[in-house]
């Protein structure tokens, strides 16, 4: 298991989405507040409101955790209930932070927050060490495919900055991580309350010679940069602009959407799924301006050389690199609704922009997120995680979640209420043989 001090030198300093998670009261919200405060990312009026709220609570110093605990119930109870997102920039790169709740009853919130993160900061209270919730959140972070884990041993000020405490926690976590199959993990001692080793190094952790937390974040690889990706463009909308003043310029059929993975250029051959028709890219427009290429996470309008019947839910891929059509998927599902999952019911499955009817063919097992043991189940309740087989009324064109998180994920919708009731990650299986040789072993799989 590697524990390097630095990420690779040649990296993309673009947007980084990261998550803070861990056990209750480990200081997740305070850590985010410290990051924002020490990087001068808090506006003056927000600081004033923060100071006033801290005074009302009888505090002599700023309570930085209030920056993310936005719900009234969160402020009153001193806990995080819902996922809080914050944006900040250091000049080197931009960040979107997700603060996930630590309570087991909010597992669905944590899974939602982790689904878009590229790095997870797992906090551990230096006084308590590795707890059940630490293990649970580590497993969930790995389950949803977060590639980089940073274990931050917080509240070092409460153990006199003792290096032996840090070493013991590191050893305990590595033992657990090895049994779970977690690969790359980095460790850092810090104090979110005093700011030691968060943005500035401070003076009390001189025995630690690694980077600060901000330095780790600044150098972490951005999403879509660590392995080649196949081009995937789910069509969201068919655009027919018309300009009476210049009809020759603005009279066309364009296909709007977001590049979920890979890149495409004018002249490249593409295939439309499910029809299988082939054509080439005639033009790429971003904000009404033509550009030669489009890359991952860009929302663009694509114009094609041939007139093809394309609608929302279709998928454009590079010719020769199309995923296979499947009507049965093996998936790990987190149940989000208060109404239990019933195998007797049909649900609407939304995969990218495509919607198909689905039913549960088999619940292979349910996972206990505390013990990580698997057991039988006939239904799923809110926050349950299980391995399912789903049969679909029409085919979809997914990639395994480990290969592409955008095209390997889906949600389940209750047809009667239109509520989102489940979130799933598609497993590599016999139904997806195209990627079998390309996918490395991934143990965060809700069980084999």
From TrEMBL:
<dbReference type="InterPro" id="IPR009001">
    <property type="entry name" value="Transl_elong_EF1A/Init_IF2_C"/>
</dbReference>
<protein>
    <recommendedName>
        <fullName>sulfate adenylyltransferase</fullName>
        <ecNumber>2.7.7.4</ecNumber>
    </recommendedName>
</protein>
<keyword id="KW-0808">Transferase</keyword>
<feature type="domain" description="Tr-type G">
    <location>
        <begin position="13"/>
        <end position="229"/>
    </location>
</feature>
<keyword id="KW-0548">Nucleotidyltransferase</keyword>
<dbReference type="GO" id="GO:0003924">
    <property type="term" value="F:GTPase activity"/>
</dbReference>
<dbReference type="Pfam" id="PF22594">
    <property type="entry name" value="GTP-eEF1A_C"/>
</dbReference>
<dbReference type="GO" id="GO:0006790">
    <property type="term" value="P:sulfur compound metabolic process"/>
</dbReference>
<keyword id="KW-0342">GTP-binding</keyword>
<dbReference type="GO" id="GO:0005525">
    <property type="term" value="F:GTP binding"/>
</dbReference>
<keyword id="KW-0547">Nucleotide-binding</keyword>
<dbReference type="InterPro" id="IPR027417">
    <property type="entry name" value="P-loop_NTPase"/>
</dbReference>
<dbReference type="GO" id="GO:0004781">
    <property type="term" value="F:sulfate adenylyltransferase (ATP) activity"/>
</dbReference>
<dbReference type="InterPro" id="IPR031157">
    <property type="entry name" value="G_TR_CS"/>
</dbReference>
<dbReference type="InterPro" id="IPR041757">
    <property type="entry name" value="CysN_GTP-bd"/>
</dbReference>
<dbReference type="InterPro" id="IPR044139">
    <property type="entry name" value="CysN_NoDQ_III"/>
</dbReference>
<dbReference type="Pfam" id="PF00009">
    <property type="entry name" value="GTP_EFTU"/>
</dbReference>
<keyword id="KW-0067">ATP-binding</keyword>
<dbReference type="InterPro" id="IPR044138">
    <property type="entry name" value="CysN_II"/>
</dbReference>
<dbReference type="GO" id="GO:0005524">
    <property type="term" value="F:ATP binding"/>
</dbReference>
<dbReference type="InterPro" id="IPR054696">
    <property type="entry name" value="GTP-eEF1A_C"/>
</dbReference>
<dbReference type="InterPro" id="IPR009000">
    <property type="entry name" value="Transl_B-barrel_sf"/>
</dbReference>
<dbReference type="InterPro" id="IPR011779">
    <property type="entry name" value="SO4_adenylTrfase_lsu"/>
</dbReference>
<dbReference type="InterPro" id="IPR000795">
    <property type="entry name" value="T_Tr_GTP-bd_dom"/>
</dbReference>
<dbReference type="InterPro" id="IPR050100">
    <property type="entry name" value="TRAFAC_GTPase_members"/>
</dbReference>
């Amino acid at each position: 298991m590697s524990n390097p001090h630095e990420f690779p030198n040649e990296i993309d300093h673009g947007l980084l989405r990261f998550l803070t998670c861990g056990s209750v009261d480990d200081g997740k919200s305070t850590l985010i507040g410290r990051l924002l405060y020490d990087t001068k990312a808090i506006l003056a009026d927000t600081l004033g409101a923060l100071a006033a709220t801290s005074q009302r609570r009888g505090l002599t110093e700023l309570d930085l955790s209030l920056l993310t605990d936005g719900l009234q119930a969160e402020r009153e109870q001193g806990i995080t209930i819902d996922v809080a997102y914050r944006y900040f920039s250091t000049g080197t790169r931009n960040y979107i932070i997700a603060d996930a709740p630590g309570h087991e009853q909010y597992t669905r919130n944590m899974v939602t927050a982790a689904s878009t993160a590229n790095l997870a900061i797992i906090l551990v209270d230096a006084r308590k060490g590795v707890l059940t919730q630490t293990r649970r959140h580590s497993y969930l972070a790995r389950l949803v495919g977060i590639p980089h884990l940073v274990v931050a041993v917080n509240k070092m000020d409460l153990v006199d900055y003792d290096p032996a405490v840090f070493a013991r926690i590191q050893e305990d976590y590595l033992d657990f991580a090895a049994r779970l199959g977690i690969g790359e993990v980095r460790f850092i001692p810090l104090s979110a309350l005093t700011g030691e080793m968060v943005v500035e190094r401070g003076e009390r952790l001189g025995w630690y010679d690694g980077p600060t937390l901000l330095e780790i974040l600044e150098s972490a690889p951005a999403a879509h940069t660590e392995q080649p990706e196949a081009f995937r463009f789910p069509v969201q909308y068919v655009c027919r602009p018309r300009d009476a003043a210049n009809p020759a310029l603005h009279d066309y059929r364009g296909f709007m959407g977001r590049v979920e993975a890979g890149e495409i250029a004018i002249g490249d051959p593409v295939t439309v799924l499910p029809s299988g028709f082939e054509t080439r890219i005639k033009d790429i427009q971003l904000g009404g301006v033509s550009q030669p290429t489009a890359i991952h996470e860009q929302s663009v309008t694509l114009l094609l050389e041939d007139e093809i019947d394309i609608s929302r839910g279709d998928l454009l891929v590079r010719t020769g690199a199309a995923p296979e059509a499947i009507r049965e998927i093996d998936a790990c599902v987190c149940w989000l609704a208060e109404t239990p999952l019933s195998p007797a019911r049909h649900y609407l499955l939304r995969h990218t922009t495509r919607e198909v009817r689905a039913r549960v063919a088999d619940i292979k097992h349910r996972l206990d997120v505390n013990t990580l043991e698997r057991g039988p189940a006939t239904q799923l309740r809110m926050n349950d995680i299980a391995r399912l087989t789903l049969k679909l009324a029409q085919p979809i064109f997914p990639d395994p979640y480990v290969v592409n998180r955008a095209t390997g994920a889906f949600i389940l919708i209750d047809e009667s209420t239109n509520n989102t009731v489940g979130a799933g990650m598609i497993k590599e299986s016999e139904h997806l043989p195209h990627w079998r040789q390309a996918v490395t072993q991934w143990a965060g799989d809700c069980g084999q």
